[in-house]
């Protein structure tokens, strides 16, 4: 049995998933990335191994993804977040054709085909008002923690418009709403709807197709999912519970299983050998063999 590890070193959180030969999750871990992505990856792997009750020697292949993937010294291969998301979303929902990944520092929309190949994508990683960080900053300004965003927005009775396209102007709107005595829940709801609007625009730019799968930590908040469903007027796939945060890590682990099988096939007697030998480690883009 070959156990593989998928490690997603995100800007805010690092996620690790361990998979067995049947692509079943046997261990996982989530922790804050901090300022040393390599250390977070190491700590996350150790935690996931403990969760699975196995030792490090049991791991046969490691694929890393996320912004800190190049800092994972023990991975065999690193892949882009788009590739990992495609493999993870497909593993959970095989009919997936469009993916929206809302993270703390970036929002990514991509369209994939039946073989998990990324056909089109758009990113928003320059404007903080269009990422999950804006929701977290808005919550903190009003005296709430990140985990309170969902419950707070769920109590909203009206949506307060926040139209700022830049984080500075958006924050000014939040301050103005508070000064007028508007309820924090309604402001939070407005911030979510604003983020959803920007995210949906990205999806339209990739020429979205059904099925749509939503991933990323911000999708833990039911108000976010409800707003997307309402704005798109279509149903969407959402991994249950905190699994929305592990989709890319799952994708990296699933891709690792795929590569293990390919290597085993190539090692069989009489198997066709490619004219060139692939590098032992490197970055894989939207196409994964």
Textual characterization of the structure:
- The chain is an alpha/beta fold and 289 residues long.
- The chain folds into two domains: 3-86 and 246-284, ATPase, nucleotide binding domain (Nucleotidyltransferase, domain 5), CATH 3.30.420.40; 95-236, Nucleotidyltransferase, domain 5 (2-Layer Sandwich).
- The chain is 38% helix and 19% strand.
- The chain has eight helices and ten strands.
- It has helices at residues 37-52, 81-92, 132-141, 149-154, 167-179, 184-205, 222-232, 247-267; strands at 3-9, 13-19, 25-32, 59-65, 77-79, 98-102, 107-112, 118-124, 212-215, 283-284.
- A six-stranded mixed beta sheet has the order 3-2-1-4-5-10. A four-stranded mixed beta sheet has the order 8-7-6-9, sandwiched between helices.
- Strand 1 and strand 2 (13-19) form a beta hairpin.
- Helix 2 crosses helix 8 (247-267), helix 3 runs antiparallel to helix 6 and helix 6 crosses helix 7 (222-232).
- The chain is globular, with a radius of gyration of 20 Å.
- The protein starts with a strand and ends in a 5-residue tail after the last strand.
- The relative contact order is 0.18.
- Mean pLDDT is 89; it is low at 275-282.
């Amino acid at each position: 049995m070959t156990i593989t590890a998928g490690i997603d070193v995100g800007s805010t959180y690092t996620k690790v998933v361990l998979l067995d030969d049947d692509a079943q999750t046997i261990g996982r871990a989530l922790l804050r990335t901090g300022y040393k992505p390599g250390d977070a990856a190491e700590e996350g792997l150790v935690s996931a191994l403990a969760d699975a009750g196995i030792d490090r020697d049991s791991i046969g292949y490691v694929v890393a993804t996320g912004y800190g993937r190049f800092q994972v010294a023990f991975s065999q291969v690193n892949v882009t977040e788009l590739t990992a998301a495609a493999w993870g979303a497909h593993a959970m929902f095989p009919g997936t054709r469009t993916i929206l990944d809302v993270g703390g520092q970036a929002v990514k929309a991509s369209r994939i085909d039946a073989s998990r190949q990324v056909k089109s994508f758009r990113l928003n990683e320059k404007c903080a008002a269009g990422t999950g960080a804006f929701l977290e900053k808005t919550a903190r300004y009003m005296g709430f923690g990140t985990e309170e965003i969902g419950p707070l927005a769920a109590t909203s009775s009206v949506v307060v418009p926040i139209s700022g396209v830049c984080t500075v102007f958006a924050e000014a709107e939040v301050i103005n709403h508070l000064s007028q005595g508007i309820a924090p829940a309604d402001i939070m709801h407005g911030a979510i709807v604003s983020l959803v609007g920007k995210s949906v625009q990205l999806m339209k730019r990739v020429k979205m197709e059904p099925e749509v799968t939503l991933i990323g930590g911000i999708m833990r908040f039911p108000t976010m999912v409800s707003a997307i469903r309402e704005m798109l007027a279509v149903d969407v796939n959402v991994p249950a519970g905190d699994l929305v945060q592990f989709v890319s890590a799952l994708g990296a682990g699933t891709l690792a299983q795929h590569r293990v099988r390919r290597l085993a096939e190539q090692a069989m007697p009489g198997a066709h050998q490619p004219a060139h030998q692939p590098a032992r480690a490197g970055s894989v883009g939207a196409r994964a063999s």
